[in-house]
From TrEMBL:
Its EC number is 5.3.3.4. It comes from the Bacteria. GO terms for molecular function: muconolactone delta-isomerase activity. Residues 1-89 form the Muconolactone isomerase domain. It is an enzyme of class 5 (isomerase). Homodecamer. The lineage of its organism: Bacteria, Bacillati, Actinomycetota, Actinomycetes, Pseudonocardiales. This is Muconolactone Delta-isomerase.
Length: 93
């Protein structure tokens, strides 16, 4: 199943710089592993914002929740999920 995801990152302004760097490094490793595994085919920065839009490919809602809640930045993000269905007018299905 495909899901469109928007993640807005809200790190505290006064977060310890080492903790921030560690979190971001762990986020990068986690999402890059999910990309290698084929579960995260699109990851785009929202221009001008500390936010991303993504498409993830997982078996079901439970796997989606496991993927998202495992993100090191999960406690610091607002996440909006949109389930995707096939558009009947798309030519290359
Ligand atoms: O948008 C960000 O920087 C947060 C994030 C989610 C997955 C990732 O690699 O970074």
């Amino acid at each position: 199943m495909l899901y469109h995801i928007r993640m807005d990152v809200n790190l505290p302004a006064d977060m310890d710089p080492e903790e921030r760097a560690d979190l971001l490094a762990r986020e990068r490793a986690y999402s890059q592993q999910a990309q290698r595994d084929g579960h995260w085919p699109h990851l785009w920065r929202v221009a001008g914002e500390f936010a991303n839009v993504s498409v993830v490919d997982v078996a079901d809602h439970d796997e989606l929740h496991a993927l998202l809640s495992g993100l090191p930045l999960f406690p610091y993000m607002d996440i909006e999920v949109t389930p995707l269905a096939v558009h009947p007018n798309k030519i290359d299905q």
